[in-house]
TrEMBL record:
Belongs to the purine nucleoside phosphorylase YfiH/LACC1 family. Keywords: Hydrolase, Metal-binding, Transferase, Zinc. This is Purine nucleoside phosphorylase. CDD domains: YfiH. It comes from the Bacteria.
Length: 255
């Protein structure tokens, strides 16, 4: 697995992700910096469901949209920690209830919101199919990665993946029931858990997603393995702060 995902800055608060595909695929992820929201959402909050001021969220989303090709419009999701994947053929002004989205249409930007969960991008090498996945432990345990890959017309060996910032393995404490849930999927997932204390385990979301991708035949995986919990200055973290904002990870096919 490569750790060479780009962190070049398109604009303050927006990071460009270099994927090994054709230039027509643009991918970005955001930090919490250089937005309009005030504490506890300071400042580049893109979530409209966290009780932030609607006007501030709108300004932040406008700023994000300015970093995309002019004709690309963002499709937002109503994320429910499930395993539903939507095939987006046209932009809906209303957020679609799902935790992943796929498209093979130009000028549709797929977005996922996170504040500890793992954002995942999938794109085929020819740059004609893309997907964005909200990789919390519940969606991962419910096979959302496989559900998303199944929508691709291209074969898994022709798909590359990118894993974004999320809560790191030193901070993500879970109960034994989470470990057992993954072990019931495949014994190999046990390596993503380290015993901590009092029946608790430290879980590695990046490793869980990587193992799932590899089992599906996807081996070209890059990452920006930064911990949202540990880096309070750069990232929102729900587990750390409770009431907080959301980052966005967005991928689109430009014409």
């Amino acid at each position: 697995m490569s750790n060479s995902a780009s962190n070049s800055i398109l604009n303050s608060g927006v990071l460009n992700i270099n994927l090994p595909t054709q230039q027509r695929v643009l991918a970005v992820t955001t930090t919490r910096k250089s937005g309009y929201s005030i504490a506890p959402f300071n400042s580049f909050n893109l979530g409209d469901h966290v009780n932030d001021a609607e006007q501030k969220v709108s300004l932040n989303r406008q700023k994000l949209a300015q970093q995309l090709p002019q004709n690309c419009k963002i499709q937002w999701l109503n994320q429910v920690h499930g395993n539903e994947v939507v095939n987006v053929k046209a932009i809906s002004a209303t957020p679609l209830t799902a935790d992943a989205s796929y498209t093979d249409k130009e000028n549709i930007a797929l977005a996922v919101l996170t504040a500890d969960c793992l954002p995942i991008f999938l794109v085929n090498y020819s740059g004609s199919e893309i997907a964005a996945i909200h990789g919390g432990w519940r969606p991962l345990a419910a096979n959302i990665v496989a559900n998303t890959v199944n929508l691709f017309k291209d074969s898994p060996e022709n798909i590359t993946a990118w894993l974004g910032p999320c809560i790191g393995e030193q901070a993500f404490e879970v109960g034994i029931e989470v470990k057992q849930t993954f072990e019931n999927l495949a014994p190999s997932f046990s390596q993503a858990f380290v015993e901590h204390s009092d029946g608790k385990f430290l879980a590695n979301l990046h490793l869980l997603a990587t193992l799932q991708l590899q089992l599906l035949g996807i081996n070209n995986i890059s990452s920006l393995a930064e911990c949202t919990y540990s880096d309070q200055d750069k990232y929102f973290s729900y587990r750390r702060d409770g009431q907080t904002g959301r980052m966005a990870s967005v991928i689109c096919l430009s014409a």
